[in-house]
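Design request, tokens follow.
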């Protein structure tokens, strides 16, 4: 599952992407005066991406492959996929239109830019409320900085980021404030996200025992849903706030329609598919070729018209799906060995045979970013001869069993993953092909959360996983040495290269857009040479089957949609109770309907 739009834009935390909260001044209201030359901006003319006539009600039933290790969104064990749903209900001052990328109001009604190019001013909607009824004020944004800088949250990456990139929040009154960056930034709104923290809930301070005390507490939020029930190890249910303060805003019309969203733990995707067939969950993703071409081909509930299929094309930044090598682990301390591993992977065979040509090769960790992407960075192809050249250059020889060896050391290691059985098939194919090149790896399958935790603690050798995306590439967390050789950072590869550090630092601090594009391309070329990330494949569409009673706007998704059902980031779907009753009655009586296969190419790239 790829993180959805609001979570990818720097306004709410996502793996490897900035999110917002901001900064603190410690000054009283009376000490500050608003500049008199501000040009306040709003946006009430952007196109809608929902159907305002959508009906309210019902429960959307879905599943998750593992239960989250915490309900915290920062600190140890918090960087899992379920956090996306929690953050989806933590609104920011602004959000980004999912198709046009225009700035839209959210908690803030208006915004303005300072002449210094590092300050943004905001006017909060006075109706904004936390889920416990407390008003959202400028002080909650000020508390955000204290929270994210606090050592008590045990999140060193965030401590560093919020200390280095932000100066303060200036409070003018309860609903007017400014966020001041530590320096001028290009596209300032992408750097200064604004998701507040409820100061009243924490009684004005971050407790020393935050990690333990708030592990399973539900923090008040500002979004349309709140966690209602937690059945540990089994399910988590969100409920819609019927009196939600933001329900009448222009860009919320036709959104957040279901009363409840229930996530049930189903640890096997094949079992999840059977749950869908038995009407226990409401949709199932068919993007996997084996499900689209085989399992769902003669599916009776589709053939009889009880369920419908969607094939929806997108046009957005691609998640980084591939292998992340721990460069601190032998034998990967040798760059020749790192490159040899990449050349031992027969990805073309995987794509053409097992994946039926549905997917494409991913060449770059940062694909789909326009001029920020380096088109000259190409994934290393399967090449047994090249593997031999690289290994012999570093003193390795083929052993009697065909595996490369150097003294008593064999080119053998473990790839950890939290993938499904179907993904495991892909890894097994690559495993068998790698043996032909003299490379041996074992597959270690863990629960998804446990697999990610192992990598965050830097205890892995190689991990198969993916990171989500943002509007612009972010490099500090993945490549800078300050995030290497330590737990709880996203530098899974332990990349530590002084020259790369310099370029990453320059990119991070540059205010010139064209310079950033050039530096971005340089970083990608240098990171490719380091080789810690080995890209595998990309998918520029999604395919889903759902029940006949679930309805969508005329265009069922957006240019940047990640899946058909995005309950919190988009929330554009709804249940038609009459169709549900009609369909369930037909399923009992044997009545059938016309089959529905909806293929939407609105946003398909040329």
């Amino acid at each position: 599952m790829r993180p959805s739009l609001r979570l990818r834009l720097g306004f709410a935390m996502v793996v490897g992407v900035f999110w917002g909260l901001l900064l603190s001044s410690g000054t009283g209201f009376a000490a500050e005066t608003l500049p008199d030359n501000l040009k306040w901006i709003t946006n009430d003319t952007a196109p809608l991406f929902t159907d305002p006539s959508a009906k309210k009600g019902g429960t959307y039933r879905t599943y998750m492959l593992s239960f989250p290790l915490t309900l915290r969104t920062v600190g140890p064990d918090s960087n899992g996929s379920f956090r996306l749903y929690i953050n989806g209900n933590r609104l920011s001052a602004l959000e980004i239109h999912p198709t046009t990328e225009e700035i839209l109001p959210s908690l803030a009604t208006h915004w303005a830019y300072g002449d210094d190019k590092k300050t943004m001013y905001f006017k909060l909607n006075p109706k904004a409320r936390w889920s416990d009824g407390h008003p959202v004020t400028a002080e909650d944004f000020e508390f955000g900085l204290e929270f994210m800088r606090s050592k008590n949250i045990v999140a060193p990456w965030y401590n560093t980021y919020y200390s280095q990139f932000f100066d303060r929040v200036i409070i003018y009154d309860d609903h007017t404030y400014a966020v001041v960056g530590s320096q001028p930034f290009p596209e300032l709104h992408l750097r200064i996200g604004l998701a507040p923290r409820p100061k009243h809930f924490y009684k004005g301070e971050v407790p020393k025992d935050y990690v333990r005390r708030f592990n399973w507490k539900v923090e008040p939020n500002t979004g349309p849903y709140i966690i209602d029930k937690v059945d540990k190890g089994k399910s988590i249910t969100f409920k819609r706030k019927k009196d939600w303060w933001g329900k009448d805003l222009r860009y919320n019309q036709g959104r957040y329609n279901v009363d409840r969203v229930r996530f049930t733990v189903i640890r096997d995707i094949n079992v999840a598919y059977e749950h869908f067939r038995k009407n226990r969950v409401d949709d199932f993703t068919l993007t996997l070729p084996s499900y689209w071409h085989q399992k769902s081909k003669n599916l009776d509930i589709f053939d009889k018209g009880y369920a419908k299929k969607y094939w929806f094309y997108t046009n957005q930044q691609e998640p980084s799906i591939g292998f992340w090598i721990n460069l601190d682990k032998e034998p990967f301390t040798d760059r020749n060995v790192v490159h040899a591993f990449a050349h031992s992977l027969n990805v073309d065979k995987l794509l053409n045979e097992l994946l039926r040509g549905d997917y494409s090769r991913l060449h770059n960790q940062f694909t789909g970013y326009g001029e920020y992407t380096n088109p000259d960075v190409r994934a290393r192809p399967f090449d047994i001869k090249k593997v031999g050249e690289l290994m012999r250059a570093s003193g390795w020889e083929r052993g009697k069993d065909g595996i490369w060896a150097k003294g008593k050391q064999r080119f053998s290691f473990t790839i950890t993953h939290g993938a499904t059985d179907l993904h495991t098939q892909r890894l097994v194919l690559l495993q068998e092909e790698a043996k032909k090149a003299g490379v041996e790896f074992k597959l270690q399958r863990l629960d998804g959360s446990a697999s990610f935790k192992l990598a965050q603690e830097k205890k892995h050798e190689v991990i198969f996983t993916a990171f989500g995306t943002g509007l612009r590439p972010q490099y500090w967390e993945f490549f800078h040495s300050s995030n290497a050789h330590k737990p709880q950072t996203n530098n899974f590869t332990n990349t530590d290269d002084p020259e790369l550090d310099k370029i990453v630092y320059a990119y991070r601090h540059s205010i010139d857009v064209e310079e950033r594009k050039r530096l971005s391309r340089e970083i990608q070329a240098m990171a490719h040479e380091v080789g810690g990330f080995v890209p595998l494949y990309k998918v520029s569409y999604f395919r889903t089957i759902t029940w006949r009673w679930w309805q969508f706007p005329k265009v069922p998704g957006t240019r940047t949609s990640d899946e058909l059902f995005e309950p919190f980031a988009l929330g554009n779907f709804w249940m038609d109770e009459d169709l549900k009753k009609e369909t369930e009655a037909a399923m009992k009586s044997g009545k059938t309907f016309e089959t529905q296969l909806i293929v939407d190419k609105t946003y398909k790239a040329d």
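Comment from the thread starter after seeing the answer: thanks! The first helix runs from residue 5 to 8.
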